[in-house]
Amino acid sequence: MHPDLSPHLHTEECNKLIKELNDCHRVHNIAQFWGKCNGICNAMLRCLKKERLAKREANYQQSLKNQEIRKQMRKADTTNYKELFPEIFKDID
Question: Which residue, 29, 5, 8, is CA-closest to 17?
Answer without folding.
Answer: 5
